[in-house]
Amino acid sequence: MKIQSAKVIVTCPGRNFVTLKIETDQGVYGIGDATLNGRELSVASYLEDHVIPSLIGMDPRRIEDIWQYLYRGAYWRRGPVTMRAIAAVDMALWDIKAKMAGMPLYQLLGGRSRDGVMVYGHANGGDIAETVEAVGFYVDMGYKAIRAQTGVPGIKDAYGVGRGKLYYEPADASLPSVTGWDTRKALNHVPKLFEELRKTFGFDYHLLHDGHHRYTPQEAANLGKMLEPYQLFWLEDCTPAENQEAFKLVRQHTVTPLAVGEIFNTIWDCKDLIQNQLIDYIRATVLGAGGLTHLRRIADFASLYQVRTGCHGATDLSPVTMGCALHFDTWVPNFGIQEYMRHTAETDAVFPHDYRFEAGLMYCGEAPGHGVDIDEALAARYPYKPAYLPVARLEDGTMWNW
Ligand SMILES: O=C(O)C(=O)C[C@H](O)[C@H](O)CO
Ligand SMILES: [Mg+2]
């Protein structure tokens, strides 16, 4: 069996997605996601110019060997562009293998560990009252876990505050727009949101919050401590994690559970965090961290330290990643939660899929493969449109972490 051809499809049904389609000489094809928000064309080129030529003629069943070929063989390891390109190939190859076996992907990973996958949705508002209302909206839809973000008085466009109730799209301009940040103001305000949410909804729902890399370790420790009475499911990205040791300081001061990893590419980004038990949830995902082949390695390592998974699932990860993630979540023994930001109807139409949401859980389908396809004719109707994530600046103009 051989890889006969492969192509990259760039489409923008409301937002940009990069998709890889690998075709075999036996008529079976596989689909992979290669989207890198705001840097989409770099992965498209990496695949088209440097990966696809070497894939032609290879045996698509040799998933591990092809992974090693692309990782070790490039010499230049890691990084978001390389690892997303590898992830796209890996997803497509697992899709092909599962289709050939006539099985849903989770069966090949080791079979079902649970009936459904608990997901969390994004509730946000311009102020506390609006966020409380938004959380109520998710509660009414049946969610068991909800991430809550709120505008902060005095901060221009604080992170996570979207415009609609259901959809939030941070990459919103053809050049990065400028948002503001002020840690003091956020530290005064965020605990009040969770106090209000617990007063309104009680303690039966899981609540989550994303610090989006904005705090220093000391400030993050302070926030974690102030949030303790509200028993969060997790506090995410409380401080940047390039320096994994930074989490020691946070950990020493708070028992609020910590999650990190949506921007991680490999096991090396989280090795110290996991083996020193500095986090509770690892947010690495199929797309970000080199596909299923590498993500399952991270998850197995994390399981030794009772760290559970919490895959990134924002809208800039296409339905292909969501499908793969749900198969992974259905299998992985140390599952924690799955993020689920809904795609628009336009996006869903371009990527027909068989996963579904019901009463706070998501279910991958039983179709052979990962269950997500691409309608190429429809995709062609939506040409690429440059769109960038915002940047953040402090009041005095200093660049900060977005
Ligand atoms: O989903 C989250 O937790 C995020 O922080 C979303 C990110 O900002 C988004 O994926 C960036 O592309
Ligand atoms: Mg996040």
UniProtKB/TrEMBL annotation:
The keyword 4Fe-4S does not apply. Residues 128-257 form the Mandelate racemase/muconate lactonizing enzyme C-terminal domain. Pathway: Carbohydrate metabolism; pentose and glucuronate interconversion. Keywords: Carbohydrate metabolism, Lyase, Magnesium, Metal-binding. It comes from the Bacteria. Its cofactor is Mg(2+). Catalyzes the dehydration of D-mannonate. Has no detectable activity with a panel of 70 other acid sugars (in vitro). Pfam families: MR_MLE_C (PF13378), MR_MLE_N (PF02746). SMART domains: MR_MLE. The lineage of its organism: Bacteria, Pseudomonadati, Pseudomonadota, Alphaproteobacteria, Sphingomonadales. Its EC number is 4.2.1.8. GO terms for biological process: amino acid catabolic process; carbohydrate catabolic process. The keyword Magnesium applies. It is an enzyme of class 4 (lyase). It catalyses: D-mannonate = 2-dehydro-3-deoxy-D-gluconate + H2O. One of its GO terms (molecular function) is mannonate dehydratase activity. This is D-mannonate dehydratase. Belongs to the mandelate racemase/muconate lactonizing enzyme family. GalD subfamily.
